[in-house]
Automatic annotation (TrEMBL):
This is Uncharacterized protein. It comes from Streptosporangium algeriense. Keywords: Signal. Residues 1-28 form the signal peptide.
């Protein structure tokens, strides 16, 4: 049996831990409460994962420039950074 790498399945598994990490995200639309990072209620659409914070921010800024969303959050995961948007 061959095991295939499935980024979408792995990203879904990591999503649960994204809000529990101590590292603060780069974008100002998140709130840090103690050591937990919480994505604001308006940033509830998961877009994608990225290997670094700068790549996540580039994608977030690109969406802002194109008018796809009004704000975004790059939250840290166990390995990757996750892009959340308001729509």
């Amino acid at each position: 049996m061959t095991t295939r790498f499935r980024p979408a399945a792995l990203a879904a598994a990591v999503l649960g831990s994204a809000c529990l990490l101590a590292a603060a995200p780069a974008h100002a639309t998140t709130v840090t409460e103690g050591t937990a990072v919480r994505v604001l209620d308006g940033d509830n659409v998961y877009r994608d994962w990225f290997v670094s914070r700068p790549r996540c921010e580039t994608a977030g800024q690109g969406g802002l420039a194109r008018g796809h969303w009004e704000h975004y959050t790059c939250s840290p995961g166990t390995v990757w950074w996750h892009l959340w948007t308001n729509r």
